[in-house]
Design a protein that fits this description.
alpha+beta; four-stranded mixed beta sheet; 8 helices; 21% strand
């Protein structure tokens, strides 16, 4: 019989780390040895799990600047939460897959956390992005135009903790689901491109009028 899933306080399970205070002017896309993950990356660019070996490289920090930072260097299994947004997407997170130990920092308006116990890879990223957990955050959000959530409020939330084996199965299931969604998105884009090509051929047969104008715009 599988052990019962436990409800625990997030603040008892995850350690809150220090993020950096670098401005956009101190970030680059082409130089440096350290990586800075911005809250906008978490909100828009990355999913529940960020594999630094496969993903598009996040913003890069000049190594000299990185050496002066007093923030914590992130490691494999750490979680980055966007604590500021312009809508209720605040609280979205990504879990780092950083098996090769790259130098990574969490940028402004983010909340980096590190599990203090044993957690299977992928579980925290998927669970903390679930609607079940996110529903706890809605009444804790502050602000009107810019919405944020505090570390103390986040620490008081509760999280569901199954056994590590069950966590592993849950993480693997959602990884397969994410891959399936990505595959279908690519197929959709391929169908749209084919339909656009057919439309251009049809439009090309029209020498003048609105069709001719549309062909010019599409090209």
């Amino acid at each position: 019989m599988a052990p019962a899933w436990e409800q625990r306080k997030l603040g008892d399970e995850l350690e809150f780390l220090r993020n950096n205070t670098l401005s956009r002017a101190e970030l680059s896309e082409s130089e440096g040895t350290a990586f800075d993950i911005h809250y906008g990356d978490v909100l828009i660019k990355y999913g529940s799990v960020l594999n630094l070996e496969k993903a598009e490289v996040p913003r890069i920090v000049d190594s000299a600047i990185a050496d002066r930072q007093t923030c914590d260097r992130l490691q494999d299994g750490d979680v980055i939460i966007a604590d500021t947004a312009e809508d209720s997407a605040v609280g979205k997170c990504t879990e780092l897959c950083n098996s090769k130990g790259k130098m990574v920092f969490s940028g402004l308006h983010t909340m980096p956390l590190r599990p203090m116990g044993e957690y299977a890879s992928g579980y925290l990223g998927h669970y903390l992005n679930s609607s079940a957990f996110h529903s706890q955050l809605l009444p804790l959000m502050q602000g009107i135009k810019v919405i944020s959530i505090s570390r103390s409020a986040m620490a008081d939330t509760t999280m569901t903790v199954p056994s590590v084996d069950e966590q592993r199965q849950i993480g693997a299931f959602f990884d397969r689901l994410d891959s399936l969604i990505t595959l279908h998105q690519r197929k959709y884009c391929g169908v749209v491109s084919w339909m656009l090509g057919v439309a251009l051929v049809r439009l090309g047969s029209e020498s003048d009028g609105a069709f001719g104008e549309m062909e010019h715009v599409l090209r």
